[in-house]
Amino acid sequence: MGNRDERYRGDKPRRPRTDDPRPRNSRGNDSYGSKDSRTRSSRTDSSYNGSSRARRVYPGEEEGGQPYRDDPNRKNTRERREMAKKKKRRKRIILVVVEVVLLLIVAAVAFGFFYVKNLWDKVDKPTDFKKEEIQTNENIPDSVKQAKEKFTTILLFGVDSRSNTNLTSAGANADTDIIACINNETKEVKLVSVLRDSFFETTEGKHGKLTDIYSQHGVKEAIQTVNRNLDLTIDQYVTVNWKAVADTINMMDGLDLELSSAEVKALNQYIGEVIDVTGLDSEKVDVNDGYESDQVKEDGNLMYHLDGVQALTFARIRSVGHHDLTRAERQQDVISAMMAKAKTLSVGQLQDIVETIVPGISTNLTLSDILGLVLDVNDYTMGEKTRIPFDNMYRDQEDKGPAYVYYYHLTDNVTKLHEFLYGTTDYQPTKTVQEISDYIDEYRQSHK
Question: What is the DSSP string of 225-270?
C-alpha cells in the first residue's frame, strides 16, 4: 500500500515539498492544517486514556483546570437553562390563567349587561323629548356650567299616578319634587325639596303651582320650569309612582320612623286612600306600638315600625305642622331611611327590589348613566337636607282659589340655593330670575 503518510492521486504518489517552511513531525507530515495533526495535538493532555479517539481540549484545561464536565461554570450554565425553561412554563401557565379569568370577567359583564339591559327595557322612557332639548335661562353664569361638571343633579318626582303608563304625561300630580345633588368626587348626596305649591313661571310666561304644571304639561315642562325659576341646568329626572315606593319599603321589611301622636292620628285618617291607589294591603297604626329610641329628636315622639303603605301615607301628611313645609321634611326622612336600609341589604335582595319597582319608574337617564350611579352606590353618603323657599324667605296665603307658596324675593332664595348645592358664594341670578322675582312680589302685594 506504500507509505501511509503519502497521499495518492490516481497512480502517482505525492511527495512532500522540501521547500515548505512549515514544521513537520517525525513522520514527515504537516503539523499544521491536517486532520491527523489536529487530532494528535490533543493527545498531549495527561488525561488522555490512549483510546483511538481523542478528546477535545476546552479552554482552561491547558493550565491544569478541571475537566469540563466538572466545571462549575458548566453547572451554572445548565442551571440557568433549566431555570429559563421553568420560567417559560410558568409564563405559559400564568398567561392561560389570565386568559381564563378575562374570559370569566367578560362573560360575567356580558351576563350583567344583558340582565340590566332586560330590566332597562321595562323602564318608561320619554319619547317626546331629549336631554339636549331641555331649556335653560340665557346668560347662565360660568359657575353653573362648571358645577355641572363637578356635580350630578337630578330632579326626583313622586306622582299619584294610578297606573304605570301615566307617569310623565299630563294628568299625574307631582306631590314630591326634590332636587338630588351628587358630588361626583366625594359621593355626598344633598337633597332640596321644592314645595309643590311654589308659585312659578312657566316657559310660556304663565304662572301656577309646580305640581299643577307637571299635571297639565308633563315632566319636560316641569323640569324647564324649575330651571327657569331657580337658574339651574338640570336635564335629568326620575319619576316614581306611589306603588313603587310602597313596594320598595315592603321588600326592605319596613322602616323605623319617628312620629308624634298627631301624625299617627293623621296617618290613620288618610291611609285608606293610599291603600286604594296602590292596591296593597295594610292597616292603621296602633299608637301604643311606638317605642323610645336614641333616634327620637323631639320630646313626646316615638319610633314606629311602618310598612310601605304606612310610610308612604306618613310622607304625604300635610295637616300636621306647617302644611307643605313639614311634609317636605317627612319625605326627606323617608328617603334617608330608605337609603340607610338599602346599605344593609344583600345583592340578591336589592336585585329583587329593582325587578319589582322598575315598571313604576320613568326616567331619561341612559343605561350608562344608571350603571355609573349603581357602581358607586356603596360610596354614597347622605349630606345636608333643606327645602326651598328657605326660612323667612317666603309667604304662603290663601287666595280665593288655590293656596300658593310665594317666594319672598326669589333672587335671594336662588342665591342661597346655589351656595347650598354647589358652594357658590354671592351668586348673581340671571335677568330672567330677577324679572320673575319682581313679578312675584307685585302679584303677592296685589293679592293680599
Answer: HHHHHHT-----EEEEEHHHHHHHHHHTT-EEEEE-HHHHHHHHHH
